[in-house]
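Re: that chain you flagged

S.,

Sorry for the slow reply, it's been a week of failed gels. I finally had a moment to sit down with the sequence you sent. For the record, here it is as I used it:
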Amino acid sequence: MSCTSSSMCSVCDESLEKDDKSNTTMLPLLILLFLTSAAGQSQNQTRTETETSSNPPKEFMISMADRMELLLLDRELISNLVQYADKLQEKVNVLQRCAKAMRTPLQASKGREEEYLSNPLHSFQLIRHMHEDWSHLEKFMRQPVGQDQISFLKNKATKFPSVEETEDATEAIYRIILTYNVQPADLDQGLIDGMHYNSSISVKDCFSLGSLFFQWGEYGKAAEMLAYSLDQVNPEYYSVYDVLEFESSEVFMLLARCLVEMDMEEDARTTLMAHPALVEHSERLLTLYRNTRHVPVSWKLMPFLPEEFNQICRYSHQNKPSRLHCRYNTTTTPFLRLAPLRMEELSLDPYIVVYHNVLSDAEIAEVERVTEPLLKRSVVFDGKENKMSTSKKRTALGAWLPDDNMDVSGRAVIQRILRRIHELTGLIMNDRQDMQLIKYGYGGHYDIHFDYFNTSSPITKARGDRMATVLFYLNDVKHGGSTAFTDLQLKVPSERGKVLFWYNMRGETHDLDSRTLHGACPVIDGTKSILSCWIHELDQMFIQPTYRSGNRLS
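Prediction finished late last night. Pasting the structure tokens below so you have them in one place:
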């Protein structure tokens, strides 16, 4: 049976008739990922042009809704990838049937070509087939496949996380790893600070984290992460790594450079020699690494997470037993005689206490409602610049309260909270009292710091320094997110409705109390919402002595 022009056209045209049909047979993963990667790379410039237009900024670190949207988008894209593979496979199936249809009549000619061609029908079929069919096949082969799927990917690319958002996510995991002493093998098993999570980490994830550790000068941890990355390389996925532009040689080279930075040159040489493509370049690379030592990024861009702070944050840390008490406070203000609050003493010097069940669920919900549209990147006070600015030292969103645009209901709940603070502390709350809501996402933290400014500024000149701090915890944090006082070896978990209160100054002298150094441990699971209120000393001038010169800066 010969393959005539009409039969060839009917075979090739099957692809057009089956455009909307799915096929469960997949092409090799290399082809799929190569084409997808190429389509994704073509979006780099498009994203840059469009991501600042109509799309509002996302908060993947903090907003569960934004991360959920990203997860659903990933599922859509995987489904789209499968559809694209089906289209490619469908075309492959058509081409294979075409090849079979053309090959079958030629099998009779094998070994007897002259006899075969002496048949005029065979000669006619061959000449017509060579003239017509291959041109049709060329046209069919040139037809683009899966254009709808490529367009879908192109349109969705504007919703992908930006470079900055991806860096934020990597840095968040860095803070979790560093603070909670998570080893690479623990990450792969989903073990973080004593708790198991149903997750693991990929080879590329390990390499990204190792690269960040290297940039920040944590060469030992970088080497651990990179070595683990190499251990996790699966030969079955070499083609996938190629498509994703993940070269194992890059891991070997960066690992060797880490070893050189740690003065382990022989180990670095061994590492380079272990990769076939690097053997002949190993000495030249070692000379390069030796002569051009790495300079870590500026400390201003790095979180300050000293080990004494990290140890307090960890699950293994337990506050030291004390003779302090839990009791009902009925004496601070007359109101507490009618409605005493459960108070837990954490420290008497400096004075730190916790009140439980201070805010109701309705009050917390109202605070969250009025602050949600006000949230933006949190700022910290820069003593050198004498101003508030965004910083890597605090990774969170913040909103100042009260706000001029706040509705009546919002203002009412803020006033109730201010009265509640007076009832808890006995201190004066005035009309200028500011509060700040802070919302931390996963990996969100605040470097260790003092709440007082100890600097001359318009605020301190008008109202004095921050004498005391009141911290409302608005939600339960599943894991991490405690407040840690380093000098006191004290950890306060984030629990819904709880209030933490402490003095930033010594009672007798009003000197600034450096023992109140504290920070917010990185959140591991969930989010953390707090409401902070700082009470200034000059507002209390009629009920407490104002400061003396002491250890203040003028």
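What I noticed first: DSSP finds 21 helices and 19 strands in the chain.

Talk soon,
D.
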